[in-house]
Amino acid sequence: MLSKFNAESIIMNSSTFLSPDAIRASFSSAMSSMYRTEVPAYGTLLSLVAEVNAKTLAASPEMAQRLEQTDTLERISEERHGAIRVGTPAELSMLRRVFAVMGMYPVGYYDLSEAGVPVHSTAFRPVGDAALKINPFRVFTSLLRLDLIEDAALREEARKTLDARQIFTAKAILLLEKAEMNGGLDATDAASFVQEILETFRWHDHASVSNDLYRRLHDAHRLIADVVSFKGPHINHLTPRTLDIDAVQALMPANGISPKAVIEGPPTRKLPHPFAPDIIQGIGGERFLHQC
């Protein structure tokens, strides 16, 4: 139980805290900047999407009016859908706490093993209308299912590898605990928190396991190798919102981007598509832009 002094201190200091919505917006922007550096084609895609969205709205006043009426017109360029995969329940639990600081909560449950993918997933996102209108950033988060590795010895090696790693920096953990203890973070701490958490999502180009173990993990499933073999997870796709998927894909080759042969998303429709589809290949064939 908080003492009267501590409770009063938190109340007095709460006015100096940055809102979870503001922290989420800062993190989304920082993530986009980092991903643009890691995957240069993503920066080109953002420009194409902005161009297509502007032309689509100019050609369809009805769509523009509908988006304006639902308070979504101004946020189109800010919408992002990211995805990350973690290896252990403990890592997922920490991410839950991290996302809570940003006002993002788990919504939905998806057992992707039904599609032959050894993970189950949820989406962390803001849940209230007001928070969604401020910044609707969400992260589709998947947890590896080690129980689906048939080889018991390989399963144990994967478990030990994952248990030995720490995917969060020491400072990120300290700031998370501070936010939970005090009920929030001021602007300075929030800025540091965003940068430290960003490290968890950063691309790692060197495996932390032997070539032999990587090969065996990959033979079991390439996603298992991707999750287990590195010192931490990484953002494996980040998508902007588009109002015309087909137009974006048509412009990609002329702008130096090789689209996938098939758009992995909904069919063409007159209503806005929520996000750019899985149409662009990325680092090592592992990073893609993905249909929400």
The side-by-side strand order for the widest beta sheet comes to 3-4-5-2-7
Q: Rounded to an integer, what's the Rg over CA atoms?
A: 20 Å
Strand content: 15-25%
What's the overall average pLDDT, rounded? Answer: 83
Tell me the name of the CATH homologous superfamily: Uncharacterised protein PF07063, DUF1338
Helix vs. strand class: alpha+beta
Distance between the termini: 42 Å
User: How do the SSEs run, as a string of H and E?
Assistant: HEHHHEHEEHEHHEHHHEHEE
Uncertain runs are 1-12, 273-292
EC number: 1.13.11.93
Cofactor: Fe(2+)
Protein name: 2-oxoadipate dioxygenase/decarboxylase
Pfam family, one: HGLS
Give a written overview of the molecule:
With 292 residues, the chain is α+β, with helices and mostly antiparallel strands. The longest helix has 20 residues, at 40-59. The chain is globular. It has a single domain (4-285), classed as Roll (2,3-Dihydroxybiphenyl 1,2-Dioxygenase, domain 1). A 5-stranded mixed sheet has the order 3-4-5-2-7. It has a two-stranded antiparallel ribbon with strand order 1-6. A hairpin with a 7-residue loop joins strand 3 and strand 4 (119-125). It is built from 12 helices and 9 strands. The termini are far apart. Helix content is 47%, strand content 15%.
